Recover the amino acids of this structure.
């Protein structure tokens, strides 16, 4: 099935480079970030795959050394019973990728969460606000190099008794 | 460093959790008001910004994050076995199911998921299905109370308490168990549990019938919930809605059947789906009815498992539920997405391991309630304000899982 999807994508989208994600369950491809919207649209609507369920959209920070961030899309096709992972690798300084909200509307909140915790910008997102944290929170806590502020609204955040890992 | 206390300022609410809509954008006759986060009908700390025209709801904006406890950040700092108790606190009315999903993911990463002894697998199904019934009881009971029926709530809490007592007997805790471990269980079932559980199943069946008569097929309840909050099948899939809410929309989709994890392929059970019997397919009544039917199916599953646990996979002196618990949990370098059917829907975990440490690089949890809440603005446009609570209740949200 994975070969068929690869064939379909390279036939329909010109000049796309598809690299398999190493050691991934479910298996999938690393997609250039410029192509992600076209790829998702094709996979969602094409009758041979019909990935109608966006199970999970997860931001990942690879850390300062690798200097990249990733967005991982876990797709599932209910009629065909097929799993697929897609991954885009982003520049850590300006992490930005096209939103897939217009394809799966459920992506709206998942993308807001990735923006909230990682600072990944989703272009063309209709409502990109912080979702879990307060709107005036400083920084993106799930980044590996995040340092929390000392206080929030006069409340101490860094408690002196907290154990360092 | 000196610990400081909160200093009150009028501006704090408006800058930390501002409204999405402003008063200037409103048309004449429209108004914005705020529901929650402390409101008995919102099932936890859910805050809704509602724009109404008279009694008609024009727009709903959920504001979440009041119960955010940084699960994912904690998971990046702790070894897998120490993260397990945190998963209990996500969907805190169905902790066993959360633990099982997490443990299953780590077992798959370690490659030991096929080696788990059958007795352990059957015990896991028993406790998870018991917890599923308890979770559905909370959902149906509080839903009845939301829309004005108080007696069913008391009945269901009474029977749920029996389940919690039994799970306490098993694990030592009433709600947050830490019973299912990676590669095994905390303890074997206590002596006499199987017989007690069978007695309980016999006791519960007529009680389910009572609730059916008192609440589900009650004319007042039907009038209140049928044709309210209709969630279309295609819209539901597009929003990532799963579990009973999706099945009520007429979609036969149950991960216990689709993925067949654990010992579910060996067990006989049906997947109830909504048919629009009292109104439209996917309305509030269908969602509640599906939950009620699932309780019957869960009882069927439990009885089959108990049968196996008393015959084929009987308790023995040399059985050690911790025999396969790994001493060191260090998965190879990989990414893995695992999913399981929780009482609320699909609970997924996305793991990233680097192969060099006992701590995951990333552990994202995909809670079903998160997706269910995101569909709320879509299905509660142009409904009466009183129906908004009927819709919120019927989605069976647990804020612990939405906010994590």
């Amino acid at each position: 099935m994975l070969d068929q999807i690869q064939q379909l994508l390279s036939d329909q989208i010109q000049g796309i480079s598809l690299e398999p994600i190493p050691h991934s369950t479910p298996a999938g491809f690393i997609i250039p970030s410029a192509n992600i919207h076209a790829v998702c649209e094709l996979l969602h609507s094409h009758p041979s795959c019909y990935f109608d369920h966006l199970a999970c959209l997860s931001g990942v920070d690879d850390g300062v050394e690798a200097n990249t961030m990733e967005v991982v899309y876990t797709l599932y096709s209910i009629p065909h019973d097929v799993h697929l992972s897609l991954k885009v690798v982003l520049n850590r300084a300006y992490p930005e990728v096209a939103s897939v909200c217009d394809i799966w509307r459920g992506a709206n909140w998942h993308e807001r969460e990735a923006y909230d915790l990682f600072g990944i910008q989703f272009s063309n997102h209709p409502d990109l606000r912080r979702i879990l944290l307060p709107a005036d929170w400083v920084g993106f806590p799930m980044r590996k190099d995040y340092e929390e502020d000392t206080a929030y609204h006069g409340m101490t955040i860094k408690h002196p008794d907290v154990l360092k890992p | 460093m000196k610990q400081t206390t909160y200093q009150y300022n009028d501006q704090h609410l408006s800058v930390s959790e501002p409204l999405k809509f402003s008063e200037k954008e409103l048309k004449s006759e429209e108004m914005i008001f705020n529901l929650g986060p402390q409101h008995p009908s919102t099932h936890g700390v859910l805050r809704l910004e509602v724009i109404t025209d008279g009694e008609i709801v024009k727009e709903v904006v959920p504001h979440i994050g009041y119960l955010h406890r940084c699960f994912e950040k904690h998971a990046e700092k702790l070894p897998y076995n120490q993260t397990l108790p945190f998963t209990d606190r996500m969907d805190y009315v169905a902790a066993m199911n959360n633990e099982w999903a997490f443990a299953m993911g780590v077992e798959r990463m370690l490659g030991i998921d096929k080696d788990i002894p059958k007795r352990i697998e059957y015990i896991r199904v028993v406790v998870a299905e018991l917890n599923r019934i308890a979770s559905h009881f909370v959902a149906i009971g509080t839903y009845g109370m939301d829309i004005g029926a108080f007696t069913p709530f008391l009945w269901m809490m009474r029977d749920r308490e029996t389940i919690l007592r039994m799970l306490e007997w098993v694990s030592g805790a009433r709600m947050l168990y830490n019973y299912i471990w990676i590669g095994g269980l905390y303890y074997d079932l206590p002596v006499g549990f199987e017989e007690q559980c069978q007695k309980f199943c016999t006791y519960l069946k007529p009680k389910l019938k009572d609730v059916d008569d008192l609440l589900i097929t009650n004319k007042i309840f039907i009038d209140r919930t049928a044709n309210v909050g209709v969630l279309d099948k295609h819209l539901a899939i597009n929003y990532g809605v799963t579990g009973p809410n999706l099945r009520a929309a007429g979609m036969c989709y149950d991960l216990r059947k689709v993925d067949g994890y654990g010992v579910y392929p060996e067990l006989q059970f049906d997947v109830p789906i909504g048919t629009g019997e009292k109104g439209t397919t996917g309305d509030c009544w269908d969602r509640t009815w599906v939950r009620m039917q699932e309780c019957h199916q869960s009882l069927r599953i439990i009885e089959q498992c108990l049968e196996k646990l008393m015959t084929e996979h009987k308790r023995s002196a040399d059985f050690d539920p911790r025999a396969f618990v790994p001493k060191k949990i260090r998965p190879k370098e990989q990414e893995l997405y695992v999913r399981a059917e929780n009482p609320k829907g699909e609970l997924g975990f996305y793991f990233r391991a680097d192969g060099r440490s006992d701590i995951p690089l990333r552990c994202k949890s995909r809670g079903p309630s998160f997706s269910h809440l995101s569909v709320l603005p879509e299905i509660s446009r142009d409904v009466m304000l009183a129906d908004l609570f009927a819709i919120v209740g019927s989605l069976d949200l647990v804020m612990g899982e939405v906010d994590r």
Observations:
- Helices of chain A lie at 2-12, 36-45, 107-118.
